[in-house]
Each structure stands twice: as C-alpha cells, then as structure tokens.
Amino acid sequence: YNGGFIGTDGLDAPDPPTIDSVTAGDAQVSVAFTAGTAGTTATTGFVAQVSTDGTNYSAGSNTGTSSPIVVSSLTNGTAATAKVWAINAHGTSAPSIASSSFTPAAPRALVAGGYDGSVTSNVIDYYTISTTGNAQDFGDLSYARSGSGGCGSSTRGLFCGGESNVVDYVTIASTGNAQDFGDLTISTNDGVAACSNSTYAYPAGLQSENDTINYRTIASLGNFFDFGNLNTATNKFSACASPTRGIYFGGGDINNVQIQYISLSTSGNAADFGDLINYSTYAENSAGASNSTRGICAGGSEAGTARTNHIQYITIASLGNGTNFGDLTVAGHSFDGAASSTRMTVNAGNTASGFSNVIQYVTIASLGNSSDFGDLTVARQAPGALSSAHGGLS
C-alpha cells in the first residue's frame, strides 16, 4: 500500500469515532457516537467497551454496525466510562476519547400527588421497580394536585397538569423537590394521560372530555406544543408507549372501551387501535404502563363508582382488542402505573376499603394475577406515576 512502504496497513484503518452521548440504564449503557473518516476500505463495524477504572476497558463490550451500541451485563451502582473503536478490512482504529462518566441503575418509579378524600397531596414517593418493599419520600411537587400525567425519559420525570397547565420536572436519580418545566397549551382538570419515549412527552385529554394532545422535548425546558387530537374526546384515562407508538386506554365517557394510538414521530390525530374487553366497565381511571412491546391496562370503574380488578394487555405494534391478563389483588380505580422492561406496578387508588397506599405488580411477559409490592408513604387516589426504565417508556 501507499507506494510500497512496508508496515503502513495501520494508516488505512478508520479514524477513531467521537462519542456523542452515553445513556445509562438498568445494568447497561447506550453509547451514541459519530464515525470518523473511513480508511482505504469502508468501515465494517464498531466496538464499544466499558471501564470501571478508566484504564481497563473490559467491564463490558458489544459490537454493532451503527450508532448507538448498547453494552449490557454491567454492574448497577458502579460508575464507568466507555470508548468506541471502528473496524475495517485493514484493522481497528485508535479508540475514541473516553465518554463522560455514567452509572447504570435499577429502574426507579416515582408516584406524585393525589387526593386522600380531604386534602390534595404534593408528595412524591420513589422505589426501585425490580425489588419489593415500601416507597420512600423523594420530595414535593411545586404545588398539591391530583390527576397529573406522569411520563419522562430515563433521566428526567415530568408531571403534566392536574388542575392547572403547569408541568413539573425532577431528575429521577436525585431526590429533591420538583421544579417548573413549562406549561401545557390549556389548563387541565384532572385525569391527564401522558406517555413518552426517550425523547418526547405526549400528555392528552387535558380537560374533561377534551381531545387535545400536546408534545414537548423532555430534555429542554419550555412550554408544550399542539400535537393533534384524540379520536374520541375523553379524560380520566391511562396511557403507555413503545419507542414509536403511544397508546391511550378508555376514559371517562360512559362505555368508553376504545383504545387509541398515535405515531410518535409524526404530529397528527389519534386513530382507533381496538377495544378493551367490555366487563361492563369503561376503564375510567385505570392504570396504564408498558415495556417496549406490550401495554397493560389495569383496574378502573363502572358507572363511576364500582371498582374492577381486571387486567388486560395489548401488543403495541399490532392493532387489535385487549386480551385478558389476570386480576389485581386489590380492585379499584384512580390508579396510575409505572413499568420497567419486565415489571409493571399499579399504585394507590380508590378501593373498597377507601383510599389506598398499596403498590401491586405484575410480570409483563407472564399472564397472571398481581402480587403485593409494598406501600406508598401516603394513601391517595389519582396520583401521577412514571419510571426511568427502558428509555423512559411510561
């Protein structure tokens, strides 16, 4: 190569990539990068490796043909950095400059606000979804409210509306009080349903039987924008999302068993997805949550008073009706849900014994009844809930 000089093959390897960002998750990190200039032949792949001491990059590794690359099987709670190498037919590039430090962590759920029959709460609780046990105090909302829509990314949680147009935010990994994020396009009553992927938040049904859907980039503070309209105006309903599709379950209209969906990449109106199973209920004030493929709708009310223990599920990528999943151990309505990639929790609610502090959970991939998880610090109905898991899906 290159005029016959010997030992110059390394000059034909690619230039090192540049790491753009690292996003820590549950025992993993997603490494986003920009490729450097290719060598004499095209770049064929990349290797991302992780170090916990800044020297030995052997704590985790994965390959890929494009950005990002996810490195799994890391140790939660241990700080680390990453480097990326590029590969072509002539060899491997020099490493990228090390990333900023990141710390993988088990998914955390936050439950905020609600109403206990006499006063409205500003309390934010938190717990680790992968374990069981009682919740702990996280901090306070900027003001007491019920019916806010919880959603967010893997690092930032949003509580949208609930008796106003104010949106609060928190940094999920750090306890403390919520701060002002911006405003929704209209003031809300209660029962806001919100979903998100790792980039955008989508609160909907901002007033009683209203069809407004808003959106906003989670990483940047500011006011929300109009996204489109629900197919059926409603409120007091629930939501979940995959990376590409948002789902809204049922709502406060009598006999509203409709499931609606939006395509998260394109502003526009919601479309019909299918119907929930009609158990003589209309899924008012149910709990909704999902992993990246399966959405779950749990509990709800019949004629505004009776409480149900039914759990249903859908496959988010495939239009169709709800399918029976199992039963809640505590029937009720005015729940809210949070999820990791493997587990969904159902929080608080209005049950036969009154306002509840009970947390229930199911394993998303396995049909069956819920189990007891632990208790919230305050009994209440209509809180907002979110999680840091699977890219912020909520």
Polypeptide structure, described:
This protein is mostly beta strands and 394 residues long. Helix content is 0%, strand content 50%. It is built from no helices and 33 strands. It has strands at 18-25, 28-34, 45-51, 60-64, 69-71, 81-88, 91-92, 108-115, 120-128, 136-140, 149-152, 156-160, 166-171, 179-183, 193-196, 200-204, 210-217, 225-234, 238-241, 245-249, 258-263, 271-275, 287-290, 294-298, 301-302, 306-315, 323-333, 336-339, 343-347, 350-351, 354-363, 371-380, 384-387. The strands form seven sheets. Strands 23, 24, 25, 26, 27, 28, 29, 30, 31 and 32 form a ten-stranded antiparallel β-sheet that branches. The protein has a four-stranded antiparallel β-sheet with strand order 4-3-6-7, with no helix packed on it. The protein has a four-stranded antiparallel β-sheet with strand order 10-9-8-33, with no helix packed on it.
